## 1
Amino acid sequence: MNIGIDKIGFAAPNYVLDLADLAQARNIDPNKFKLGLLQSQMAVAPVTQDIVTLGAQAAQAILSEKDKEQIDMIIVGTESSIDQSKAAAVFIHGLLDINPFARSIEIKEACYGATAGLILAKTHIAQHPNSKVLVIASDIAKYGIASAGEATQGAGAIAMLISADPSILILHNDSVCQTRDIMDFWRPNEDKYPRVNGKFSTEQYTDCLTTTFAEYQKRTGKKLADFAAMCLHIPFSKQGLKGIQAIAQEDSKTLNRLTERFQEAIVYNKIVGNIYTGSIFLSFLSLLENSQSLKAGDNILFYSYGSGAVCELFSGHLVSGYQQHLQPDRLHTLNQRTPLTVEAYEALFFEEIQVDETGQAVDLPVDETDFALVDIQDHKRVYRKK
């Protein structure tokens, strides 16, 4: 049975910060961001936008009423959870009016969670061929004003409908995972922002890739030259490029080809920033919508990495007619976002919801987007769908 990605959608907040402006405000050479990170803009989410609203928006863009009837599982991969108990998938299930007889769960393992969701969805479809699974990767990366990771922040969500006989990508049965108990990036409950050992984390990202790829080759017999393109987790775009260089350094022809495809695969990541669990799938969407070289049948290699650390290599091939299920004007839409000054970004992105002694939100801003957090009552989050 062929199982894979039938539809894919994306949502980002309507605000954006130019990293050249951020560099000027922080007295940093703009090329440190533009060339050193390969990042140029950052999506900025207001307090009324979170993983629920962004995830619902990404899914709403691709789902038909028939899809909502057939979906019997919703999986949200995130590390930006808004509740220690209730899954974001449950909120999204209600906002989208999906079939009530569905399983709704949330998966956490740093930036790897949505990939785990994808593999679980594939296993579920294998057992229930007529069902569909909605996998959502939704995150807001926030490190603090003037922090070392400030320029790599971002916000957004990817939604993928997984089914039998998919219209975009058929997943192969070749996954290879690796787990390492390390502390390269972690988020203690008592801390507002993540803790990061930056140099160690980038080293682990690359070493996990090279060692897992060696095991992948041993198990599958596949070579890097067998793939038309490679999509990687993109904490910042330069890191993904270094990953490709690390495993393709001895094959210049393949390296050049994969590098060309990689530049197409980071068009969106460069202007959205890090969206944690969704970064690898945003890169895949960017590749599909910006490459003129891909064709049906092409094999794509994926490298998912979540700090802590869990990584996975897997692959798939493109389905005939996949181009008809994309949004070719997405870059134009992203370019219509509202630009922010550095001062406005600091006020918007780092605003915190104030709750009084009764658990009621105080002076929550009005948000006119399709999905928004509109209130907190007795410590319960209240969302609105337009």
## 2
Amino acid sequence: MTRPDTIRKELSKRLLSRLSTWRDAAGWRIAFSGGLDSTVLLHLLADLAQHHRLPPLSAVHVHHGLQAVAASWPGHCRQMCQILGVPFQVIEVQVRPGASLEQAARDARYAAFDEVLLPGEVLLAAQHRDDQAETLMFRLLRGAGVKGLAAMPAQRVLGRGHLFRPLLDEPRALLEAYAKEQGLSWIEDPSNKDTRFSRNYLRNHVLPMLTARWPQAIASFNRSAAHLAEAQGLLDELALQDLAQAEIPCPWPWLNVPSLELAPLEALSDARQRNALRHWLGPLTRLPDSDHWAGWNSLRDAGPDGRPIWRLADGQLHRAEGRIWWLSGIWLKDVAGSQHWSMASQPLHLPGNGMLEILGEIPRGGLHVHYRQGGEVLDVPDRGRRDLKRLLNEKGVPVFLRGRLPLLYRGEQLLAVANLPGLDADPRGDWRLHWQPPTNDHSLR
């Protein structure tokens, strides 16, 4: 039988080795639920901090309030942290109702961690080898692709910092042995036995049956997840190579809307197209499963006069002027109306549409700003009066942008169209109309 001090020394040594990459982090925050796994991680780190120079330690407990019994958990966690001398913080969250309570609680928890992490800090989570096997099985049953079957990554970006799982290669049995030998107490969540939840069913029924027949099942699942993670890494590298061919700057450098040139994507096989788009759209929106990509095919194959749109969970993909454009948030809301610009020497804030300013000598007369309604004409130097729609066609302005371009009027006369060379200034060059479009945080997250 392994001696208690041997378990502690072995775990501490492996933990310190895995954390070596993060020794210069601004701080280590421990995701502390009070359960077995996070209790062991907290105890190990507090012990290591007594003998090694580590980043500042602190613990974060997310209180969901989903069970009456959970009301006592923050107090238990606070007492444990006081004993170990680790600063402690409780964050209360509201779990949005939905089809999956498990997923909703997880989303709320990681959103809280995302908010609390400061630049350069690392959130240390205590998921272990059994959790990884469980995740792989759960995602396999849901028909996940390579990325999903890679299960939980050991590390990833989270908010302004990083998430790291230093116990992912350790079996739960070893963590429980450590906790018992060290005399630790932890919270037993009664909901973990509720097999109406899919993960609990796998944990309490399926995995024990599999390991009874194949004792190495959990280790094998983890090995498969590692192989799939490596395969996903190769797919990511391929996506970056393919996207590099499509990331040709758009003609409007002031337009802060993510976009790609379509032709290089069309030259790829269907599988490589989907791989590249998953990589590009992943930070922008939740993606459909493999059975619901018909929207991409329709957008890609639309005729040159078409205006196809692929509607996704968090926004829309538009096709215009040989490019695809990602629109979400404020870019999906129409702008309308007019504004008098009595103080044209000052920037004009456009509701839901950024800011407008005149650079140079301010033109005389009562100025006001409109948006396109149709039928507008503009005097163009050396060309005379021209229909605005035709001018926008000549400039190759995407359809989604045309209704947002601010138009400067003096009385009934259209003087300029913001940001379009040749249309945004007076003929003598005394002034120019400059528009700063709205920043769409959802498109740039």
## 3
Amino acid sequence: MVQGAVLVAGTTSDAGKSAVVAGVCRWLHRRGVSVAPFKAQNMSNNSVVTPDGGEIGRAQAMQAFASGIAPSVDLNPVLLKPGGDRTSQVVVRGRADGQVSALSYRHRTAALSDVVADSLARLRARHDVVVCEGAGSPAEINLRATDLANMGFARRNDLPVLVVGDIDRGGVLAHLFGTLAVLDPADQALVAGFVINKFRGDPRLLEPGLDRLRELTGRPTLGVLPFAEGLWLDAEDSLSAVADGVLGHPAPPRGGQWLRVAVVRFPRISNATDAEALACEPGVAVRYVTEPSRIADTDVVVLPGTKATVSDLAWLRASGMADAVRAHAGSGRPVLGICGGYQMLGHTVSDPDGAEAAPGTTVAGLGLLDLEIAFDPVKHLATPTATAWGETVTGYEIHHGRVVRSGDPGLIGDEGSDRGHVLGTHWHGLAENDGFRRLLLTRLAGEAGRTGFVVAQDTSFAAERSRQVDLLADLVEHHLDTSSLEHVIGHGAPPGLPVLTSGLAASPA
């Protein structure tokens, strides 16, 4: 049985690191190997609450699902949540721990390196294999001295590295060669090989390039993963899976009409994956929108979560979207708000202590719900279970804002607001509950006047998620050299690999 660890790095962000890690984890899990994913440092506003009460990147929760284990804070010990162009909230082992700028964060990485090492050690003690994911690209040598997640992490933990390149962007052979070439010799020694992702066409056309890449670098390409249309759930950046604004691949309606859903794409949108459960349903077309005309002909408007409620509410007004949302609701068509989007639907949003905005800020909301929101300095994290519309539902909460007054009936017991065609909740993941989602879509279609829309009774969101991670595992099994992959995991990078001369000074260990 294979034992060990590997780091999957990428030539760029969105090269496919998260998908490759998930696929390798699922492939190993299907073979009976105890495996866990790991990302030392993530930067994402898509997060979940774990059973142990902390907050981690959603991609790591998806990878945990692929591995057959419960997500925990050890899977992603450092999470950066951007709240502006230059600042991020730091989440350490699941708990918010201050704000940083790109420059000030460098002063924290030495201490955070110990946190990362401790989490990795715990995972390696509990599992046969840990499949680690890098962040961004290891070629960002300007950040090498304080690196937590790429070659600095690999060096500190003596991990072999596979570099993934996205051929769909073009120039992948240069990306792979260049990524290796800019690393110093000690870092290069850990790079065991390459993986090419999202290939379309006949692999034989690529073979001469791969042969030459091996001649130049001394490293093999362990496989070429073909482009797969059916992969879009739980993307690290869910918007990267959107083609022409449409989420997923909507199946034809069961009845005579489509239900058209517009999700407002805030500048600091968070947990955009809430819309994915709706997009899995036949006849439901979910589209991200950023300008008012895209709301005019839609049936349902969704205001999703945001990491910056006050500033995104200001954007909503400045862009004309606020007036479009109010007009939509004024015509009796449904609006659904989730977390930050729910908070915007009320009368006021205040931030007395500066949890997200300037201390003492109070702004007017859209006034579509009888609701007042105030922000607490301590973030609320929870994984609640309740009954809604006769269905048992689960979800998770991640928010600073709390309801200080509400005059509307609750959506889930006392939680949330239900004013007929305008609904809101702080719960994420609510639509992943199949029974509740069917009732919700029936309600939304009725409020929108879509009497010909028929809600499917056989859609399982959990089954669709399983299908997609199994598809990733199939790609790994059939298109990677899994024997070589196992050898790298168990034995590390081969000794004596060639060093490409770059003229760079040695990087710190």
## 4
Amino acid sequence: MRTAIVVGAGTSGAIVARRLADAGVEVTLIEAGGYDSNPAIHDPSRAGELWHSADDWDFFTVPQEHAAGRRLHLPRGKVTGGSHALNAMIWVRGAASDYDSWERAGATGWGWDAVEPVYDAIENDLLPVTDDYALSPIQASIIDAAVEEGLPHNPDYNGGTLDGVSQQQVTIRDGRRVNTWMTYAQPIADRLTIVTGREVHSVIVESGRAVGVRLGEGVDAEELRAEEVILSAGAIGSPVILLRSGIGPADELSALGIPVVVDSPSVGKNLHDHLLSPVIFTTERPVGPPQTGVSVTQSHLFWRSRDGLAEPDTQPIHFSVPMWGDLEPRGDDGFTLMAGLVTPYSRGALTLSGPDLADPPLIDLAALEDERDVAALAASVRQCRRIGAQPALAEQWGAMEVYPGPEVSDADVEDWVRRTAITYHHQVGTCRMGSDAEAVVDSTLRVRGVEGLSVIDASVIPTVPTGNTNAPAAMIGERGANFLLGR
């Protein structure tokens, strides 16, 4: 029987494991974290509790020169379900042009005509995607205020046009989170060999072929072998494993004493992410605390910050709570219009600080390095300020802007953005696919230079789509499994 190891039980990995097992492959699924027993995972109102928890890898960037020298927290799921166990469950396909641009850049066969049927199948098969839920009163008013600001109401942003304000389409059923681990892998757990709580150090490569993985290191080291190795550890985890395996930029590996297996200069490069910046309001009319089974975000919008753009470049996300973060709380109740940048020009890189599991990756998003990113995010902040001042919020709720606040003029918003920008949780690009010699994987997601090794997750995305990346990660999982099975 054909054997395979899948590293990572997140969005892509759970799908790959299921599809291979259904085809008769003997699959070992490895998850560095534990099972999703934390009740906060399953209640959409408690997602904020998961950051910095045992279920979060709790990554931080290096100090970001263009974001006020801050180290940005990058929550990533260290649990069955991966980051889909921590996120806001928002389902966004993105724009058709996103995928057509992938193909034009060398990702052969990844245009919209190829990926659209995969989205259709996912949404009609094992993963519920719905907007059939009651809006919280504050969320309904936020949508009304956005329309008062001049935005169209878009009843289906996944229907071909992103522009406008919309109720979010989410993977929630009966007030509980649903992710691909729960619907793809967990139901067939008896047909998988599942290893939890063990971190993969590296891939074992012999005579140019991947033959297994090394779990742990030192006295706890263990080798597992299989005919195929699939890395689905995400845009941070997958390149880290490749680098520790000797697959990456030769000069960087040699400097750390890691024997070079394949000189692949793009591993860890092309790192980019969507960014958010908060606009926070308190209210005279009580919004109230989060309600069990109800997400604290139910609406968002897509908007073009300047003329001439082919697609929206901003995606504010709206929260029914004040998202103070590192800011000083100024009240117990309110809401947040979180300005969002979704077409970043800045590109960073991920490198190793050492060859061992305990050596943290050096993650540099180069956040806001490109002035166009600052301009777009600042424009989104200004728009969120205007929305909060519309009658549906200012009059009906007594909404008052407390951050940035009246002391920050619209002209000073660029500085606000640099001081407050945070991740939108959408890192991609570090194992870029393409047809050029420097692409990490080819268009079938096979690692160049190593037989029997694939990367199937958001790290292969060459340019981040216009919107949340969970849906693209699921689509990549389905397509990657088909490539492995010769379909």
